[in-house]
Amino acid sequence: MASSNPSQHLQQDMGKPTVTIATPTPTKTSRSQSRSRPNTRPSSPDNGNGSAISKSKTPTMTIVIKLGTSSIVAAKPPYPPRLQLLSSVVETVVKLRAQGHRVVLVSSGAIGVGLRHMGLKDRGKGLSRKQALAAIGQGQLIALWDNLFAQLDQPIAQILLTRADISDRTRYLNAQNTFSELLNMGVVPIVNENDTVSVSEIKFGDNDTLSAISSNIVHADYLFLLTDVDCMYTDNPRVNPNAKAVRVVKDVTEIRKQVSTATLGTSLGTGGMETKLIAAELATAAGVTTVVMNSTKVEDIFGIISSGPGPNRNADATEHLETGPLCTRFLRHAKALKDRKWWIAHGLHSAGTVVIDEGAYRAVGRRESGGRLLPAGVVRVEGPFASHQAVRIVVRRKKRFPPPPLLTYPESEAVTPSRMSPDGGPSSMDMDYMASPLAKTVITAAAASIGSVGSVGSVGSSPDSAPQPGTPLIYPTLSLSSSVASLDPLSRTAPTSPAMRAVTDRLAVTSITGELQSNDADVGAAVASAAAAVNATPVEDEWEEVEVGKGLAQYNSLEIERIKGMKSRHIEQVLGYSESEHVVDSIALL
Ligand SMILES: N[C@@H](CCC(=O)OP(=O)(O)O)C(=O)O
Questions:
Q1: What is the ipTM of this complex?
Q2: What are phi and psi of 87, to 5 degrees?
């Protein structure tokens, strides 16, 4: 309630001796500690109100909590701050801190608070207007947080980031050091985008993505995306009473096609369920368990972390993930990308694209390759880019068709998640409604929608188009997430039309043969065979190009264009020098 007194609210609840801890001395090393540089324990043994302290059984963790605009201010003018909710967040954070956890808050709301301060009804159009409102509101917002946290003697710090801060490795590491120092000092960093200097090309765009990036910077164990619904659903629960909760997700790519992304998005915020999926994809790849939950039930965090995976416990070892507080848990990847690889894959803008063949893709995936690409595997280059810039790695391969025979399911047979998995393995989705007649229709419709490229949507929202039981299931083609594209606003789109590709390929061949000065027959043969390989491109319709990762170019785009398809020993003869036998290094496969 906007009218409630925040300090009263804090005092009342914090007066109960519910929590916590004197000296947080974890029995085992937490994942966050083992991944990051040495750090001291949080320095706040007391929560400031003298309440009794008891030892937590949950190992200490690093926890990022993100609040969207809808949780910070009311949905309608004059956009008063949601003081009761914010107070609950403050209490929860302080309790987590007292249990020994390190906590980072990612707080949207600068524009909303700015609107209130200026007595405006809407943020209008135009970037500069929003930037001005954010500049007005950010000071007010951080003052509000400081006020609330000060009631419990919890120091905070403001961190404003832009995309450019993340793209530059030195700035990224500096940000990491600052976070680390703050957390070691027992401070709660409060992060927002630095809207004043963020132009559209270098914007995170939404704070869900920013929170995922912050989670990687601090090597978080958990990312909580607080929002205005309890969890993700198979359809919009506000419209469809039969919408089912999705409790556990093991594979974001797969679930993307099966849940509704139409459940969120307010007039002030820029995020929504889609951006939460992207954030979950980014964070889980970095080894961060990600939870979508209702901001009005923030205290559920305690139950969620105590029953979920943690530093010393994998998801397999946890029971009751489907029970307990209602939320959607995206389980962290068992093999999280190392910090630098994650940074290359998700933190950097791609300046161009290197298209490789399937053999090269397989080779790069092998451990002994060291994530480096030889020129022989390069099919095409899209630039311009300089050496040492990040490039997208795209594999050109024969299209995958569904394995015959297509399966059909009789009406009487319950459709189970495992049947939706292309490899016959267990599905990532764990929903208890799978056996219901509704589920059969929903799942069959979902499977059909998976078959059409890019069809993401509200499953079950258009029953007319849902295939009837007995309709063949169409297997999904593996495709990379949209996260890369959304994180990479400066990147170029690969030419998709066959005619376009034919032209660029032919130009590339002309350029090689035209510029080659060497009389070396061996090099001539290499060039001819590279050219022949390009010309021998089979029927375009049978081929597809799929983004599989990112890496750092070792030569510029023109140079790679000239040595593509060749053996490494020809690099020096063609270019006149050889910096490396590899054309792309530090490849992070997604
Ligand atoms: N950074 C801006 C807006 C970011 C934003 O809209 O995020 P969200 O409300 O999480 O979708 C602000 O503080 O108002």
A1: 0.98
A2: -65, -40
Tell me the C-alpha distance between 235 and 439, whole Å.
Answer: 12
Q: Is the CB of 274 under 6 A from ligand 1?
A: no
C-alpha–C-alpha distance, residues 288 and 212, integer Å: 9
| Angle (nearest 5°) at CA 476 between 473 and 477 | 145
Contacts (Cβ under 8 Å, ≥6 apart) of 464: none
Q: Which atom of ligand 1 is nearest to the CA of 208?
A: 10
Cβ–ligand 1 contact at 272 (below 6 Å)? no
Query: Which own/partner pairs from 557-562 qualify as long-range (CB within 8 Å, at least 24 positions apart)?
Result: 557/352, 557/381, 557/382, 557/383, 557/384, 557/385, 558/383, 558/384, 559/387, 560/354, 560/375, 560/378, 560/381, 561/381, 561/383, 561/508, 561/511, 561/512, 562/511, 562/512, 562/515
pTM above threshold 0.80 = no
Question: Distance between CA atoms of 340 and 438, rounded to whole angstroms?
Answer: 45
In this predicted model, what pLDDT tens digit does every residue of 249-261 receive, in sequence order? 998 878 877 777 6
Closest approach atom of ligand 1 to CA 108:
13
Q: What does the alpha-carbon distance between residue 260 and residue 86 come to, in Å, rounded to a whole number?
A: 28
- Map tokens 């912050």 to a residue: 214
